[in-house]
Structure formats: C-alpha cells, structure tokens
Give the backbone structure.
Amino acid sequence: MKSVNRVFAVSAPQDLERVVEPLASYICAADEPKTALMSALAVLFREVEATNRAANAHFRATLAF
C-alpha cells in the first residue's frame, strides 16, 4: 500500500498579511467595494473547491493501489 503524507504546513501570519493587505487595498479602492469583496470570495471558494476535488481524486487514486 502506498503511504500518503497528510501533514500540511501552516502559513505564518506574515505570509497571509502579504497576500491579504494588497487584496484589502484593492477591494477598498474599488468603485463598488462590496461587489469586489464578493467577487474575491467567490474566487477563493472556487479555488478551495478545486483543491479539495484534486486532493480527493489523489486520495482515491492512492487507495486503488
């Protein structure tokens, strides 16, 4: 059976700040901040769903062996 590494590195708060700060500035500077925020959240949720689908497919593939 193939072993699967299920330990994930957690990003340091500084890493998240480097990503969130420019995004927050973009949202606040938008003509319609609420629309920009909702669009950013939609993109984030799609990315999380895609990552989960890929992880599940990988996990199912490792169980096949």
